[in-house]
Design goal:
Length: about 675
């Protein structure tokens, strides 16, 4: 049950008519408090400590879709994030699709369709259901779904030779060990091919692998790389974008071990994988890895928990590095995999800022210009060499923010106080929150009616650059429409972060505009996120020896800019972690946010028996009439904090408190 005070297993009797189908992992219907509710059968036992038990009402489907190791993981994740098991299982197993199940059962007898227990484990033939524990994860491959065992020899490191620790990582995986690594990828690195090599080594050792990426574009690249390495049918793709039927079919394929490898977006972090030998995540700093539904788990943390529970290896990779990944290195939980400086210099484009002192001496207007002369010159030279140019702009749209042309007051919606935006050059300002048109807008301070740009979006940038470089093709790529790969030849590509297309042979120049929009965000991770987005764009440029240039419109003295210039994500992550440790911020400390009406927040915190050393920070306004309190504890007391908050939520749910309170452990946004 999702209610906190009912977050535990309940025992039921199995009638003889359902005994054959009622196996661990199936969906069931039971009577609870007089109502027919959905349930999961977690385990079968001979007896129960409860004297009076009701019977199972029915087995919804004989297909055991909940693997025992996933059920165990779900309980651990629920406890870590102060959530309920029901909420985690809702994320772990996709909604049932009856037609897909019928097709599966028609193809294969139910007893062979999906293994009901780990190999070598017998299911008790009793009449009672869950005894309060979850069946532990098995380590053997289910019968009838054998994977290749043994290794023909050490794998070819391929591109991993560019990293001193790369071949050792592959050998450890191929020998069936469980290495843990944090990988800093080189500029221009084919990360999907490197991941495919590690996965192939895992499969050759007779074990399975699970890889999670942030979005569909990365999933397509990894899918193609694994198909080339393992062959067709060597892996299963899981993504919420597949649609209900295809997603459920892929999930059932993973459950019955049709292939030893599962890849996918955030939806795949709980995917069942037999004999799990490796978990991997690419670009763990992307906020798409954070689940927006309760209990709000992060894919990185779920995968690392799986590695710990099941004795699997772990690989955390990216062009940039998060403070959380740096903590893994500094505590010794994982080893760093990075290239030496000689290889790095050969692969890195020439990177230059526009706001350092020598550049300002040559171009005094660079401090205020949106496209300083250095950036304009780099673009012009690349276009003359018949090479494409990438321009990264943080904001989409035309003019996503405008202000009064006379007094510079930000233009706000008269109805909801949301920011006004202009959709086009001759468009009418409209609110970005409520969508209302403000055709007759007048500034409330000076009564002025003229508007000016406060923030310039990708479409306005494309318009401006089209005038600056007449005759050059200009294309935009953003959330509304992501461009496919760009062919060779001169041209301008204006893209928002995450939507940058790959150019054949690499871009001649990459311009990183409006850096202030990323660096001045009221966010603990502003610098980290800026470096991540810049690195993702800069890696698409050619190496410096081939004429590749990157120009970042920012002061070269800033730490994120310095990290980009030296391509040293590890240095910046260590610096960030040291500062957060000194200030008491995650991941050096563990935090939980409690958000809701003031009285409800105060009530929950009054009920919580927080561990010694817990600090309360706040309250601060959240949204509407709600407020937020932060609870901070040392990492060693994180489990006690989560238990205390979950127990307090249980007291409120048992009392049927009217006002809900949202609990988030380690939220991405603290402010």
């Amino acid at each position: 049950m999702p209610l906190a005070h009912l977050d535990r297993p309940f025992d039921y009797l199995v009638p003889q008519s359902l005994a054959a189908d009622a196996v661990p992992g199936v969906r069931v219907k039971v009577r609870f408090a007089g109502q027919l509710v959905d349930g999961w059968l977690l385990d079968r036992a001979e007896r129960s400590d409860h004297p009076r038990l009701a019977y199972l009402d029915r087995v919804v489907s004989p297909v055991p879709v909940l693997a025992p190791e996933v059920a165990r993981l779900a309980r651990v994740v629920a406890d870590r994030y102060a959530g309920s098991l029901a909420d985690v299982l809702r994320l772990a197993v996709p909604p049932r699709h009856a037609r897909v199940e019928k097709e599966l059962l028609a193809e294969t007898p139910p007893s062979d369709a999906i293994p009901t227990t780990p190999a070598g484990t017998a299911t008790p033939a009793g009449t009672a259901t869950p005894a309060g524990t979850v069946t532990p994860a098995g380590t053997a491959t289910p019968a009838g779904n054998a994977m290749p065992a043994g290794n023909a020899g050490p794998p070819d490191p391929g591109g991993w030779r560019d990293y001193p620790a790369g071949p050792a990582l592959l050998r450890a995986v191929a020998e069936g060990r469980a290495p843990r690594a944090v990988w800093s990828a080189l500029p221009g690195e084919d990360w999907a091919a490197r991941y495919a090599t590690v996965v192939a080594a895992t499969v050759a050792a007779g074990r399975g692998a699970l890889v999670v990426v942030a979005d569909g574009r990365d999933l397509e690249r990894l899918d193609a790389a694994l198909t080339a390495t393992l062959g067709a049918g060597g892996h299963v793709c899981l993504s919420a974008a597949l649609g209900p039927a295809r997603r459920y079919r892929a999930f059932l394929g993973a459950r019955r071990s049709d292939a030893p490898v599962v890849i996918g977006t955030r939806a795949a972090m709980f995917a069942p994988v037999a004999r799990l030998g490796l978990v991997a995540i690419w670009d763990d700093g992307d906020d798409l890895h954070a689940e927006p539904r309760a209990p709000y788990p992060h894919a990185r943390e779920v995968l690392l928990t799986r590695a710990q529970i099941e004795g699997a290896g772990a690989l955390v990779g990216g062009y940039a590095r998060t403070a959380e990944a740096q903590l893994l290195v500094e505590t010794g939980w994982a080893r760093e995999v990075a290239a030496d400086r000689a290889v790095l210099r050969a692969r890195t484009p020439a990177i230059a800022p526009t706001g350092d002192d020598p550049q300002l001496a040559r171009d005094p207007g660079a401090a205020t210009a949106r496209l300083p002369s250095l950036a304009w010159t780099a673009a012009r030279e690349a276009l003359r060499a018949d090479l494409p140019v990438l321009v990264q702009v943080p904001r989409r749209g035309y003019l996503p923010s405008v202000s009064c042309a006379d007094c510079r007051t930000p233009a706000r919606c008269p109805h909801c106080a949301g920011p006004l935006a202009l959709p086009s050059a001759g468009g009418t300002p409209a609110c970005r929150w409520c969508g209302r048109v403000a055709a007759a807008y007048a500034c409330p301070h000076c009564a002025g009616r003229r508007l000016r740009a406060s923030v310039t979006g990708a479409r306005r940038t494309a318009e401006e650059l089209g005038r600056a470089f007449p005759g050059v093709p200009v294309r935009t790529s953003g959330r509304e429409e992501v461009l496919a790969d760009v062919p060779g030849g001169a041209g301008l590509v204006i893209a928002t972060p995450g939507a940058e297309p790959v150019a054949a042979g690499g871009y001649g120049a990459v311009l990183l505009l409006d850096s202030w929009a990323l660096l001045t965000r009221a966010d603990l991770r502003a610098g980290e996120e800026a470096l991540r987005r810049w690195s993702a764009a800069a890696t698409l440029a050619r190496p410096a020896a081939q004429g590749g240039r990157v120009v970042v419109v920012a002061d070269g003295a800033l730490a994120p800019v310095q990290a980009l210039l030296r391509w040293d994500a590890g240095w910046f992550a260590a610096r960030e972690l040291a500062e957060r440790r000194e200030l008491g911020f995650p991941p050096a400390m563990r935090m939980a946010s409690v958000t809701g009406p003031p009285a409800a927040v105060a009530d929950l915190l009054a009920q919580a028996r927080l561990p010694d050393g817990a600090e309360l920070l706040g309250p601060v306004p959240a949204d509407g009439d709600r407020e937020r309190m932060l609870v901070r504890v040392p990492r060693a007391r994180a489990a006690a904090m989560a238990d205390a908050l979950h127990a307090a939520a249980g007291v409120r749910s048992a009392r049927k408190a009217a006002d809900p309170v949202r609990l988030q452990v380690d939220p991405l946004a603290l402010f």
